[in-house]
Specification:
The chain is α/β, with parallel strands linked by helices and 484 residues long. The chain is built from 15 helices and 24 strands.
Length: 484
């Protein structure tokens, strides 16, 4: 594609490169640059993108896009924002594939992954074929499913995913949209058919994420400004502001919850074995649905999916069949053996831990609850306070262990959390080796007790010292130890 075509819609401050230049590929990683390609010098939190320009030039880059004039004599395009430019370059290079698809985006502090799979399974059932998904769990665009390490991929990979989806004849894609996705312009220029705002609680605040809660909230709010159909939970914090933003930008705004004033609301929740049945109501109808996933909070996720699917004109029979048997690895996976119950869940912040503990207290009345958990390094420090205090309040015993410690000392993180547990009780132990901790916690589990393995789900790695170190995964260890 010619450079001038790639630059469509991008605010260019200065250009020394030939607009007629034929660009073969685009890269933002200088190690991957090939001759004749365009290199985008993206600056991150700790790195100046321009320092990688010499390597890109050495590898044969035809030109660079940068927000700061390069010191070398390589042809360049000077832009206002390197990340914004990267997003639009990707859109243009791949032919704006999202404009030819039904795109469903989901944001919220918790529940994004499970809601994504409720919607994906509904679409699969209604359409009779597998649809695309980009989630914390996997990336599937029609070929082989791939493991995911980012909730929302970088903009260039994201556009590649959209193009791959179309190339495989798939026209429906459901994806999680993180706050970082909008902060770092990964989804800039992506038109969502439907956007869901599930809930909101303080999270991801820190030097490597969002500087404060308002920044976190405003980044999440962008989805409501870039979708045609907005679906909002009535019970979320900052509801009025979310609704106002959606009303000002979306063609249709639908509200779901437990209140008959909502467009769609839920009544008559009944515990089943496994899962729940519940009645979903709107102004014209009442219909009973069933999910086999545990956790009462997943009813809210299911109603979000039902509301969205109805807005996409999918019938209730397909919706009911689509949500009933949904199971997401690492999300409320319940394993039972000899009267012992182990629950593997991705709960990792205040909102998700609160919902999990309350659900278990209601559905397993009187059962002693043990929990194994930790907190990531270099992430929101408030998580350590919140999770520590919640464990002190709800758990009868706590195993503190490593959870993606990064460059921090996992023992130090655990000691911080222990200080907040100790405000309520001292029934905890610090075991930094997570695999050994899971094995011990299961070995010490008595009949009638519940053990929560929280924070890692099915992930088979630990983020340590800048590496992804192999870890068997909470789910795999639990299955091995229980023999199920």
């Amino acid at each position: 594609m010619k450079l001038k075509e790639l630059l469509t819609g991008i605010s260019v401050l200065e250009c020394t490169a030939d607009p007629e230049l034929e660009i073969k590929e685009i890269f933002y990683d200088s190690r991957k640059v090939t001759p004749g390609s365009l290199f985008v010098a993206v600056s991150g939190f700790a790195a100046d993108g321009n320092k990688f320009i010499p390597m890109a030039a050495e590898k044969g880059a035809a030109a660079v896009v940068t927000a700061k004039k390069p010191e070398t004599d390589i042809p360049y395009v000077l832009v206002e924002s390197d990340r914004l430019a990267l997003a639009l370059l990707g859109c243009n290079f791949f032919g704006r594939p999202a404009e030819h698809m039904t795109m469903i985006g989901i944001t919220g502090t918790k529940g994004k992954t499970t809601t994504t799979y409720f919607i994906k399974n509904i679409l699969d059932t209604a359409l009779g074929h597998r649809t695309a998904v980009l989630s914390t769990v996997e990336m599937y665009t029609g070929g082989e499913a791939e493991e995911s390490h980012l909730t929302t991929p970088e903009s260039l990979e994201l556009q590649q995913c959209f193009a791959d989806t179309l190339a495989h004849g798939i026209r429906h894609l459901t994806m999680e949209v993180s706050s970082q996705a909008y902060k770092q312009q990964r989804v800039y220029g992506v038109p969502f058919t439907a956007g869901l705002f599930l809930n909101l609680s303080e999270d991801h605040i820190g030097p490597l994420e969002h500087e404060n809660f308002e920044d976190y909230f405003n980044c999440k709010l962008q989805l409501m400004k870039n979708c045609r159909i907005a679906v909002i939970c009535r019970g979320t914090d900052r509801y009025e502001e979310i609704y106002a933003a959606a009303k000002a930008h979306a063609e249709t705004v639908l509200v779901y919850g437990s209140d008959p004033d909502c467009d769609v609301w839920v009544e008559d929740i009944r515990k089943e074995q496994p899962g729940f049945s519940f009645t979903v109501c709107d102004r014209q109808s009442r219909r009973t649905f069933r999910i086999t996933m545990e956790g009462r909070f997943n009813i809210e996720n299911a109603v979000a999916a039902i509301t969205t699917a109805r807005a996409l004109v999918i019938g209730d029979d397909a919706i009911a069949a689509g949500i009933e048997e949904v199971s997401v690895p690492g999300r409320m996976n319940v394993l039972q053996k000899d009267g012992r119950t182990v629950i593997v869940d991705y709960a990792h912040n205040f909102l998700s831990f609160t919902a999990l503990f309350r659900s278990l207290k209601e559905d397993y009345p009187g059962a002693p609850i043990k929990v194994l958990c930790g907190c990531p390094g270099h992430k929101n420090q408030k998580r350590r306070v919140d999770i520590g205090r919640l464990c002190g309040r709800y758990a009868d015993y706590v195993y503190l262990t490593a959870e993606d410690p990064g460059y921090e000392d996992p023992v130090g993180i655990c000691r911080e959390m222990a200080g907040y547990i100790a405000e309520t009780h001292d029934r905890y132990i610090i075991l930094p080796d997570r695999a050994a901790a899971v094995e011990r916690a299961i070995a010490e589990l008595a009949p009638g007790e519940i053990l929560i393995l929280a924070g890692k789900g099915e992930e088979d790695y630990q983020k340590v010292q800048g590496r992804y170190d192999f870890y068997e995964s909470d789910l795999a260890i639990a299955r091995r130890c229980l023999g199920v």
